[in-house]
Automatic annotation (TrEMBL):
Pfam families: Smoa_sbd (PF17885). Gene3D superfamilies: 3.30.9.40, FAD/NAD(P)-binding domain (3.50.50.60). It comes from Acinetobacter johnsonii. Residues 147-254 form the Styrene monooxygenase StyA putative substrate binding domain. The keyword Zinc does not apply. This is Alanine-phosphoribitol ligase. GO terms for molecular function: ligase activity. It comes from the Bacteria. Keywords: Ligase. InterPro entries: FAD/NAD-bd_sf, StyA_sbd.
Length: 412
């Protein structure tokens, strides 16, 4: 029975640990929070997961909330005209298969308890370099799946793959009850405000039931970069509503009766999108293998974080099973990460393209989608697999050819 330790009890680490545990591996998961501390803490992310990522959970029998979590049935886009403050265009399209968002304060504690029920070992511990040395002595493979903390910074930043070295957005989340639903189907309501930032919202399941999540992405030093002085839950909700009232009155209209879901239902911060090299070499020479957010930190603008984590977990799961009893060498670690990067690279490129002023052909594509349902459907369904945006999202000539030939096909 192979012994593997996973540092971090989030989407990727727990999903991988539960999957390997069911295959007979000896798995230990380490985290610095108990399940109850996670449940009673603040929200950690917005985590809208699309079909393929959800399927990786279903395949492992981990989709415990599927019947209770509100479905996200589509996505809408609106571009605000800076001169008038009105929408230059708006459109929406259905997802072929629904998305869902389960608050990590709901999912992760239950998964961690399920991991222990199935025979996995849980260790409550802060893990630094000394602890990693001890783990590397005891286990055949040590994976670092924590996206935050000082130890993550020990993975070397990959300068060739990291476009930015500073935060590109001031970020805020607000979990609310009482938002007016959108008809005729639920959706991610995505709004782009040039020079200000982006706002999107969608239904979710939180610690006290169904809710909506408001996500604010403010351009640094712009009018939506306004969270530094917000100290209390009430102030956070009021600031959220102030932003909507000033910049997105049609969204403000949906929020006349909203309240925070709970005193932990808000978050603000910022971080630079970063790609790191996958192997950490300890002072002893032993190797630690990173995964998911420890290595590829994507801005939440495109809602891909938990999707990336689930898909990374699947790649690593398959690679570990296929590796049998062979040693987990640095070459194996690097080749396994490259399998994941073959997917994540396009996700990062697509997200990064929306963090800078959009190319004219991208604006043209988004505008054309308001007149072309097939194009709208393809854009919306590509959130499930952003590799399908290539080449036309990234290449002006490919976009022009797509629009001229009008050969946009529905996603299968």
């Amino acid at each position: 029975m192979r012994k593997i330790a996973i540092v971090g009890a989030g989407q990727s680490g727990l999903q991988l640990g539960l999957g390997l545990l069911d295959k007979g591996y000896d798995i230990t998961i380490l985290s610095n929070k108990t399940p109850d501390e996670i449940r009673q803490g603040k929200v950690m992310s917005s985590q809208c997961m699309f079909h393929t990522a959800l399927q990786t959970e279903r395949d492992l029998g981990l989709n415990f909330w599927e019947e209770h979590c509100p479905g996200v049935e589509g996505i809408s886009f609106a571009l605000v005209d800076p001169a008038s403050g009105e929408r230059a265009f708006k459109w929406s399209a259905r997802l072929e298969r629904y998305a869902q968002s389960v608050d990590q304060r709901v999912k992760m504690p239950y998964w961690l308890e399920e991991f222990q029920r199935r025979g996995g070992k849980f260790v409550l511990q802060d893990v630094g370099l000394n602890e990693l040395e001890h783990l590397a002595d005891e286990y055949e493979l040590v994976l670092l799946a924590a996206g935050k903390g000082e130890v993550v910074k020990e993975f070397v930043r990959d300068a060739e793959r990291s476009t930015f070295d500073k935060p590109q957005r001031a970020l805020a989340l607000t979990y609310v009850n009482g938002m007016k639903p959108i008809s005729p189907y639920s959706r991610v309501g995505f709004n782009i405000i040039p020079g200000v930032g982006e706002y999107f919202c969608f239904p979710a399941l939180t610690v006290n039931g169904p809710c909506d999540i408001m996500v604010f992405e403010g351009i640094p030093n712009g009018p939506m970069d306004c969270w530094a002085e917000v100290k209390t839950p009430e102030e956070h909700l009021n600031k959220s509503l102030e932003i909507l009232k000033e910049h997105l009155p049609w969204e403000y209209e949906r929020c006349q009766d909203v309240t925070l879901t709970d005193n932990g239902g808000y978050l603000a911060g910022r971080f630079p999108p970063t790609v790191r090299k996958p192997v950490m070499t300890l002072a002893s020479g032993k190797k630690i293998f990173g995964m998911a957010d420890a290595l590829v930190v994507n801005d939440p603008l495109t809602g891909q974080g938990s999707n990336n984590a689930a898909k990374c977990s699947k790649v690593y799961f398959d690679a570990i099973l296929a590796h049998g009893n062979q040693a987990f060498t640095q070459d194996w670690m690097e080749s396994t990460f490259e399998k994941y990067w073959s997917y994540a690279e396009k996700v990062v490129s697509w997200t990064n393209s929306l963090l800078v002023p959009p190319q004219p052909h991208v604006v043209e594509l988004l505008g054309a989608a308001s007149q072309n349902h097939n194009l709208a459907s393809q854009i919306v369904n590509n959130f499930d697999d952003p590799r399908n945006f290539s080449p036309w999202w990234f290449d002006e000539n490919a976009a022009k050819e797509l629009l001229e030939t009008d050969q946009v096909s529905q996603v299968a």
